[in-house]
Design brief:
189 residues, 31% helix, Acyl_CoA_acyltransferase, GNAT family acetyltransferase
Length: 189
């Protein structure tokens, strides 16, 4: 594990570091070879980051005050500004996960998550996810997300390390995605 790890709810002063990490791993900035290690697909602007920070929906891992990872966790009202999220919510009536009523009130959009390549595979995902979970479970009992089927590292990390459940799949803009769900009342083991 990282020696000087700090887990924090993001502040406005963190925006430059968040943008720098996002730029390094944004799918549109990567070669095919780099994409094989994982990527993020949704670029966030300063106003969007400001909004999600104001909602206390952005969680950071820092090493010696340098941002090395982030997780977004927001309500569907925030994420509905992107067409893919609007489409995904139309699928909710047909989704089944445990005993949850899957809707936009009791669930939230988890992600994206981004971890600096130098810190991947070092056990960071579990404490960062758990930090986010403890803060968000007060508002939402159910986490939902989607992962591009070509993003195998992310799918493996979520299903194997964090124990998310793949509950469906869909196609959007010629890409294929898994829909995953997580019971936020369950601590990461």
């Amino acid at each position: 594990m990282i020696e000087n790890l700090q887990l924090e709810v993001a502040k406005l002063s963190d925006i430059d570091g968040i943008l720098a990490l996002q730029q390094r791993y944004l799918v549109s900035n990567l070669s095919e070879e780099e994409k094989a290690s994982g990527f993020v697909t949704t670029p966030f602007s300063i106003p969007q980051l400001t909004e999600v920070i104001g909602q206390e929906g952005l969680f950071l891992a820092k090493d010696n005050n340098k941002i090395i990872a982030y997780i977004f966790a927001g309500g569907w009202d925030f994420f509905n500004q992107w067409p893919i999220f609007n489409y995904m919510t139309t699928l909710f009536p047909d989704l089944i996960f445990l005993n949850f009523d899957i809707n936009t009130i009791t669930s939230f959009q988890y992600g994206p998550i981004c971890i600096d390549k130098a810190y991947r595979g070092k056990g960071l995902i579990k404490p960062l996810f758990e930090f986010m979970r403890i803060h968000i479970v007060k508002r939402y009992p159910l986490a939902l997300t989607f992962i591009n089927k070509t993003n195998i590292p992310s799918t493996k990390a979520h299903t194997e390390k964090l124990k998310w459940t793949i509950i469906a799949d869909f196609q959007f803009n010629n890409n294929n995605y898994f829909i995953l769900a997580y019971d936020m009342n369950q601590p990461v083991s």
